[in-house]
Design goal:
This protein has 376 residues and is an alpha+beta fold. The chain folds into three domains: 97 residues, 3-Layer(aba) Sandwich (Rossmann fold); 62 residues, ATP-grasp fold, A domain (Dna Ligase, domain 1); 181 residues, D-amino Acid Aminotransferase, Chain A, domain 1 (2-Layer Sandwich), CATH 3.30.470.20. It is built from ten helices and 17 strands. The strands form three sheets. An eight-stranded antiparallel beta sheet has the order 14-13-10-11-12-15-17-16. Strands 3-2-1-4-5 form a five-stranded parallel beta sheet, with helices on both faces. Strand 10 and strand 11 form a beta hairpin. Helix 1 crosses helix 9. The longest helix is centred in the middle third of the chain and has 17 residues. Belongs to the PurK/PurT family.
């Protein structure tokens, strides 16, 4: 499925997933002259509302997926929780169509044990961890309490995890942990971190990497609340995180934009997890007065070279959740009277508590922001 087999020379980009990340990819791709397609089980999605041609079908419907692939030149992802059987099918299709990032990156990212094991093989510092199954649940471990116990797959924004402070709580957890006997978890030590940091980078097909530098992130109720760019950390730590993220991307033969999350503890970077797609902590790039993470992702997967000059300026990003959504919009419209603020809404119908409905960026430093910004 190369461009020469198509009716015209317009590159056709397809993504699996159809949420706000796909929406923002499409908003970069369409004005650049690319055709944009999305595939997911969701009807009337944010991606479709941005102009994508949508296929609505199950990720496991391989017949529909094969038809979708026949319409595009390059496939990417805006959602990593794709069934493993589908990723295995895509792996077998790589000779027929370009797929960026490689499906193996998603296989690793969506399994917390594989992910942490991969980090350790690369020599990175992580929280201590072990793979919890019914068989291993009675084994002794040297990891001190408290622990975070996470489902092995498909958790995000604090979902699928519980904190266990002592042996008594662990025994309580085990009482209901293995309903089928096949459940799997990752047990991690709790790291008393100073800051949460992320790196947003894009790796191009020629192996070149563009990185914005470290972002500092604050969470509320396990959901990202505020991103501060640049992170308020020493230059050496910024460089350490950047080098670790770059080494990770190279180890995966990665192409496209990715987000890599770290904990800063006692002036050391601990690698926490990565997302094989553009990332919520990279939304500041839309208004950083340089190229956005979505622009770089589109450029990378379509075989373009990296830009020669990426110099992002200080920017803040505030997530807007479904909690008190009308009030947040009223605040946002007040802030928009100042052109340093930019509002990005996703077009989701239902404003549910904890649901990401949009975000607002501020072009400037934390000290300059209107206090109302924190009330969004």
């Amino acid at each position: 499925m190369t461009n020469s087999s198509k009716e015209n020379s317009t590159t056709k980009i397809g993504v699996l997933g159809s949420g706000q990340l796909g929406q923002m990819m499409g908003l970069e791709a369409l004005p650049l002259g690319y055709d944009f397609f999305c595939y997911s089980p969701e009807k009337d999605s944010p991606c479709e509302k941005a102009g994508a041609t949508a296929t609505v079908a199950s990720y496991e419907d391989l017949s529909s997926l094969k038809t979708f692939l026949s319409k595009i030149d390059v496939l990417s992802f805006e959602f990593e929780n794709i069934p493993k059987s589908t990723l295995e099918y895509l792996e077998s299709e790589k000779k027929q169509i370009q797929i960026f990032p490689p499906p193996k990156a998603l296989v690793i990212a969506q399994d917390r044990f594989l992910e942490k094991t991969h980090f350790r093989k690369l020599g990175f510092r992580t929280a201590d961890f072990f793979h919890l199954t019914k068989e291993s649940s009675q084994m002794d471990t040297s990891i001190p309490y408290p622990w975070i116990i996470k489902t092995l797959r498909f958790g995000y924004d604090g979902k699928g995890q519980v904190k266990v402070k002592d042996e008594g709580e662990y025994k309580e957890f085990l009482q209901n942990a293995f309903f089928t006997g096949k459940e799997e978890y990752l047990v991690e030590e709790v790291i008393p971190f100073q800051k949460e940091i992320s790196i947003i980078l894009t790796r191009f097909q020629n192996g070149e990497i563009v990185c914005y530098g470290a972002v500092e992130n604050e969470h509320k109720n396990h959901i990202l609340d505020l991103s501060i760019f640049p992170a308020r950390i020493p230059v050496g730590l910024n460089l350490e995180a950047t080098e670790m993220a770059s080494k990770l991307a190279e180890s995966l033969d990665y192409v496209g934009t990715m987000g890599v999350e770290f904990f800063l503890k006692e002036n050391h970077m601990y690698l926490n997890e990565f997302a094989p797609r553009p990332h919520n902590t990279g939304h500041f790039t839309q208004d950083c007065q340089s190229f956005s993470q979505f622009h770089l992702h589109v450029s990378a997967i379509t075989g373009n070279h990296p830009p020669t000059d990426v110099r992002p300026k200080p920017t803040l990003m505030k997530n807007i959740l479904g909690n008190e959504y009308k009030e947040s919009l009223a605040i946002a419209r007040t802030l928009l009277k100042d052109d340093r603020y930019q509002l990005h809404l996703y077009g989701k119908k239902d404003a549910k508590i904890g649901r990401k409905m949009g975000h607002m960026n501020f072009k400037g430093n934390l000290e300059e922001v209107n206090p109302l910004f924190h009330d969004l």
